[in-house]
User: Fold this.
Amino acid sequence: MFTWVEDHLKLSRAWKSRECLDANSQSAALQSVEQFHTPISINPIFGFEIMRITVLRLGHRPERDKRITTHVGLVARAFGADEILIDGRDEGVVESLRDVVNRWGGSFSVADGIVWRDELRRFRDSGGKIVHLTMYGSRIDDVIEEIRSCERIMVVVGAEKVPPDVYNMADWNVAVGNQPHSEVAALAVFLDRLFMGKELNRDFGGRLEVIPAARGKVVLGRRS
Ligand SMILES: C[S@@+](CC[C@H](N)C(=O)[O-])C[C@H]1O[C@@H](n2cnc3c(N)ncnc32)[C@H](O)[C@@H]1O
Assistant:
């Protein structure tokens, strides 16, 4: 019998690495899809795929935002997003995020030097939906189910001041509470609500893997 999270993620990985799924796996997974209303879309060719999530980090200032942009990237990866695009150039941030992917696994990708307006247009024109996280937006609980039904979303988080066009181009302006806080916190809570907490059990298949322990540090190392 399929346990939803593990098998859902296995299927997603299988799709990403183009492994074939046998008929039994497909039908068992379909039952689990029907049983739980989850952020899954059914790919007619490869089987099953988790919603694809791009995070767009706006307004990165290399002289002061290195740490926070790195944390936006780390949270994006750890909480189930597929890639981060950084508005601005910063080789150091890109390298440190890629280094984490290299050691800790997953297929998260990182790109900088993004022209945000072009990127948002292209994403929208290709059928993706845009979610802008802002304290001024709609309550997350009022829109999260609708967002969960999308196949591809771009989650936009700002730095200091976000240009008005972003509010207009977004399909949803979403508030994680209507108080000012942080892009790192807003992204973490948003993704966790989107995946209903299940993203935390994901297996990244990395060279390094933590074995949960009540005390001390237990880390598995793999050769490849
Ligand atoms: C330093 S804050 C700037 C706060 C800004 N006044 C705003 O529009 O939310 C940087 C980023 O954190 C995110 N953020 C901060 N508070 C938020 C909240 N309550 N809900 C959603 N996102 C928030 C937004 O993406 C914002 O662009």
Notes: The beta strands are 40-43, 47-50, 52-57, 83-86, 109-111, 129-139, 152-157, 172-175, 208-210, 219-221. The chain has two domains: 4-50, 52-201. The pocket of S-adenosylmethionine is lined by residues 133-136, 157-159, 162, 175-177, 179-183, 186 (CB under 6 Å). The radius of gyration is 18 Å.
